[in-house]
Bacterial regulatory s, gntR family protein (Desulforamulus hydrothermalis Lam5 = DSM 18033), 1004 residues
Amino acid sequence: MDISKHLINSELDTSDKRPLYMQIAFLIADKIQKQTLPPGIKLPSERELADLFGVSRTTAINAYRQLEQQGLVWTKVGSGTYVSPVRHVESQPEVPWLQLFTPYPQDPLASTLRDLVATPASNTISLAAGLPDPALYPLETFTELFNYHIDRVSPADFGYIPVEGYHPFRKSVAAMLNEKGIAASAENILALSGSQQGLYLVSKILLAPGDYVVTETPTFIGAIQVFQAAGARILSLPCRQNLELLEDYLIRYRPKLLYIIPTYQNPSGRVLPAHERQDLIKLAKRHRLIILEDDPYSELSYDTQPPPALKALDHYEGLIYLGTFSKILCPGLRTGYLVGPPVLINRLALEKQFIDLHSNNLAQWLVTMFLSEGMLAQHLATVRREYKRRRDAMAKALQRLCAGEIEFAVPEGGFFFWCKLKQAGTSQQLLQEAVNNRISFVPGEVFQTVPTNQDKEFRLCFAAHNEAILLEAIQRLAKTLSQIRKKHLSTASPPCSVRPII
Amino acid sequence: MDISKHLINSELDTSDKRPLYMQIAFLIADKIQKQTLPPGIKLPSERELADLFGVSRTTAINAYRQLEQQGLVWTKVGSGTYVSPVRHVESQPEVPWLQLFTPYPQDPLASTLRDLVATPASNTISLAAGLPDPALYPLETFTELFNYHIDRVSPADFGYIPVEGYHPFRKSVAAMLNEKGIAASAENILALSGSQQGLYLVSKILLAPGDYVVTETPTFIGAIQVFQAAGARILSLPCRQNLELLEDYLIRYRPKLLYIIPTYQNPSGRVLPAHERQDLIKLAKRHRLIILEDDPYSELSYDTQPPPALKALDHYEGLIYLGTFSKILCPGLRTGYLVGPPVLINRLALEKQFIDLHSNNLAQWLVTMFLSEGMLAQHLATVRREYKRRRDAMAKALQRLCAGEIEFAVPEGGFFFWCKLKQAGTSQQLLQEAVNNRISFVPGEVFQTVPTNQDKEFRLCFAAHNEAILLEAIQRLAKTLSQIRKKHLSTASPPCSVRPII
């Protein structure tokens, strides 16, 4: 095999500024990796290589030396330079990475969340992720804001800014909250890289291994994971929670935190009634319980206004509030915020600086402009109108096609129908069948704080698709339900068990 | 005092969708907080309030009930409703936040970093933060990218994306790295919310309390802090490091990690010579040492090209590489990246999802466009030309005005002059005087891995200001140096000491 034909017609790029020996080494490395130059083959001598590229012999020697250091070629003294045998890096790692990593508490759930966030397979209708419809993202408005307002901003605003956030953003968010009855000024606001970061930061500064945290069950999986990763033990409040059970927990276990989504809860869609909110605050004050109120959906109401946020009901300073622009504007902004007393904001900021110095200020500026130019109200009116239509379409389709097999309540806001199988089988089994019919959703066990494989509940997101697609999805679901019924699945699937490996 | 005059002429906003009682309560709460309605004053009766606003008595009762729950008013049975006494929340906290927080290892350094990142006082020329000049941020180009390309992108790209990053971003970064001789494909790239996040994530998955980490000294303070916050012990390699000391550390302490900035080091400006890079890689391979190579400045070369990155020299998979667009485009993008084997990327992503789900995809898209439209080379040419002029201007001014009092080397790239006082006194003392002359910089002790107050070194950033301002800054520095000399400061300032409080 004449190697030179593979090298002679390759030309070096004259605009390339790297040293010549690196360019030649890179070119040869490329051909070795593509196996144009296969393992074991003898390469041109240093002199031949120099001639082929019209470079000095030193350059040729340096090129081979670099390839040798990369393990791509080897030199047999007195014989020449040869392409090295193929290395199977993955199967024989030089560095035992997996043994070097710190212990990771909970792989399975974590990867479930990742799958939800990842892009679904094509031709499957995904009702899984809690995703606003991309067609409604205000990208044109963002372009307009750049065109009309970027000249008026000081470029220094896009340099490094204080950890707590872009000051005009903190002021605008405070003003927006004031309109909703939440007392806050800029110093009460911490800008976040999405409200997920608020869960992480609060866990980091409040939770030590073994601490108790109370959450609703079912609830947002991302929160459970963060608390568990901090070593916390979870106490569950069933969805139709009663405050007696909570008070019992408070007295017996002295939990560090209550995590709650009072409005259009994820996944159940439930709204905590106004009087229960007031009772909850009173109980929290009595026990000095820290409440972490997560409120991503309250602006997405389709019938009546929901009750005011817990944070609006009282100046109890043990209440931490989390908000986000991911559901109402677009997730890609990665812009949320936390509301709390300055002593808390300060401590969270000390932690946040290690994580990302501060949140994206380009996105904070866009949101600030959106708010200060008064564009939010109009945008909310548009998305509410559209999502209400979708909610109604899905309710109608479920009622017409699936009411025999599942129970569900029509949510007054948010993104989700929370459904329960009436018939035999679990939602896990339903999902396995559903995927064959090219529809996916989230089985209920993912939202449970205690592992189970008996769950009959599941979550459908109606926000991400238009009415025609939603109808098609529910038709596929109905087909799946009928297939399942015919299979006569046992209601008694095997219980959870732990088998030692012997 | 007739209260009604404060309430009668206030009108409720008919477009406000909140319940009337909330609107009224909010209006009164506002006047209480502004002390238009001072503490102790009697409010209108429920009937009067109803008349004033033209609402039902139930609405008036509910408004007062809400204010009562917020602690803003109180009801004296048989007498009426009164504004509560002023509450001093900060001085008498309901929740003892400071006692609830998890221990925080190292306040002083952390707040130093925050001060560097925060905006400096006006009329002081800050040579402190390692900040590119805001006048050079490509904001116009960003606007153009929105105008010409936003239509061509799928809006779903601005929804939730995989934790590892926006795929076109990962591909573009890999292609950019290939041109620099670094072998990488998209699966080797993790998008980061700034390269600071890479330091945090790597610490999180590799370091347990008590582990050893080797760093250069002086080095980037943000890295030291993150390693120390993870409970690591720092082993220092002096700036003109020798590999014998490193090998000694490797054998004696088996460190988990070497952190190094090989090119235009922060703060020293030093470039690790090519042959030392090769020797370092060989040593690392022999000991399976993980190297974390931080490379924010290598594109900012003003004389000759720097040697290739460590990551370009070898396929040793124990080498983790960190890059960022903060110094070459703009910090507000908060967009950096980590390069490593897929097994590492996967584990880091599991950790990152808890922190922020994924990095800002709007910014990742902007950077991708910047790269794929070939705009980076031109932008780099502009900033290199400008920063080179500034470097030269500062070198000239320092030589002319300060050469008697300080030593310094002219850096070949990056942002910093690293200077050393020849005369009596420490850089801390110099800074205290300098601030009076309206110039600031970073004293060397901030970059030391071991606390000291004897340091005579300090860092000047030349990137953030134009030549005229730099000249003015060095004139102020020269004035400060001459003032210090006249003060006959003792070279022997008191050594570090720890005094027990008794």
Chain A has three domains: 4-83, 110-131+378-486, 137-373. Chain A touches chain B through 114 residues (CB under 8 Å).
